């Protein structure tokens, strides 16, 4: 019988037939990625996979190559919900199916309270309306494609350090208006099939066992029928989470909800059989949706696939190029037109130009099915428009935190890229001595090996992995620095000589989800024409450290990482880049962050670019006034050199088609239309949460309350480097004829239309984003942000001289606030102001109008 036949099952009848033990099993996962099957009743297991910018599949180790989409902040920067919906349906849903999964763990729509948050790149925006509308489009498209969305992390999960324990302390009004609002909008417009709870506490109680969040709000107020699951290892009790409404504990490894503990909890009356069956019923409802809307997944061979590695490239490039933000373009230096501008020599510099930077780190990371570097994309685009242009390159200043991985530098004995791994069982589970003969031998094409739970199951609990490969011969003698990180113990040997000992004693670090060591280094002279043997010995038992003497077995987060780079003196590297800048007609500096700096597991400590990157930009800009800077990051960075360069282009993390998109925008094949989904401050001190972003004895005080991002800048009259919503075009636009209709109050809602005429006053066709911000009545008895985004729209491909009228709709969400005393949304009578323009910057909101609401009303729900 096909597993998808469960789509026809009567859920009440199945629940009635469940034994208590079967119901218990359904409330927790199996392994890392599956729910529990009950073959007796025809209940299939379903598989989930990490997102949100792709579908990695089951494996961190030797994962199946996949399409990587732009980061969430980039998706939001498109201000194009229709594009995001199409992307999710036509590309992302198909990717999930290729990974034999039915549920994608995404989107992430936490509020970017601070750009220091390690996963800020993974959420959409600092603005709840933009976040919610893009999240709704993502969820809608994904589920139209037959794949369930698991929206996360519910809620107030806005930093990484101490993420399992810290307590987000905030007012109910801020919780509702800022942090819950994106989820609320996604529920209203798209109805996610599942929610994932956050690791942290919210006002004293962990989210996974918080009845106010799960019962009062999600179930009762919003009326969701979604399943609620934990984040991985994100529950801390049995009875509290069961009774609060958490349906599914994930993963099934090292779980709380075992048959023994759950039955003991029933016997002690901490939980009831009825409640357990209620939780199991939600799991069955989710399984049935998966069987109904994507039966081919359940009935398939369950083998992960990549499919056509290049398929969807055009759509991926479109999402990427539509997200790119032109921040500055002095003198019209962009787009680059070599013939028209007399550009014969172009210098490309910067640590990100040739680096593989496609996403942030952590669970969002995956192995790309293809990747185009910025350097490759820019060269291709320039050569297409002018084949004779000369292009030079220098790294200039290094941008990585950890040494770049070496899979492209190593090869096996038979010449394949990578190396060979020999897994050895030990004499027994407690032994530190590996057996002489390997238990499993595997070809491995990566030098960051995160074993998670992906190691061969036939191994003993303690095991050894020995990695052997050969460094591809160099053309000349080269001093080469290796870097070794391990979650466990590891040693690096080159030609049989011990180069790095990360085995005897370690310093704890933040790699491998805070399970790994710091990186240890060693330098070796690679001889010209010689294939040097590279050998790493690893065991999944941590070495003692000064701060932590425990020699724990790494049974879920074990890993080893080998990186390296040629030894180059930083001053010489910088001087080379400056010399090339002096000789060039134009300089393109590609700089930014990467997955080491922005990642799940820890927070950033600064908004500055890494190492000597800022110094590099200062120096090349001084050497050549025609310097274009392309920045890559998933969240805000500071740009102390912004006034010194001719142009600044922000490119986020753009996924597989990174270089394609950057090249298209720089050469004008695509006229940029992205707008900043985050404010970019001039300094860290100008961020609203500065001074109370980090926890104090486990508590994180949300002292900025409602004033997050641009709302803080307006409230305090602080000018950021770049305003939220800012972005230029290669043409110009003029706004006129603003019209605001009188509010129509009916069916417990408000309906207001805002229309404006937009005219292309430039010389090329362009696309414009129209933004509408609301200010509450000055007669209000409560404090409100000076202005808040409540509607946006996009006018596409407007030709020079043409005009188009765009109409934006406002509803009760645009004019409501949360009244804590009565626990309801309130719409106050009074005069509301609408400001319409090109960004949240005061001088960009050139048109304003008013409307008046005459009677107060209250509402709840959605």
Automatic annotation (TrEMBL):
InterPro entries named in the record: Cellulose_deg_GH3, Fn3-like, GH, Glyco_hydro_3_C, Glyco_hydro_3_C_sf, Glyco_hydro_3_N, Glyco_hydro_3_N_sf, Ig-like_fold
Main EC class the enzyme belongs to: hydrolase
GO biological process: glucan catabolic process
One Gene Ontology MF term: beta-glucosidase activity
Entries under Pfam families matching the protein: Fn3-like, Glyco_hydro_3, Glyco_hydro_3_C, PA14
Gene3D superfamilies for this protein: Galactose-binding domain-like, Glycoside hydrolase family 3 C-terminal domain, Glycoside hydrolase, family 3, N-terminal domain, Immunoglobulins
Alphabetically ordered keywords of this record: Glycosidase, Hydrolase
EC number: 3.2.1.21
Domain PA14 per the UniProt entry, residue ranges: 414-578
Catalysed reaction, written as an equation: Hydrolysis of terminal, non-reducing beta-D-glucosyl residues with release of beta-D-glucose
Family named by the database record: Belongs to the glycosyl hydrolase 3 family.
Protein name: beta-glucosidase
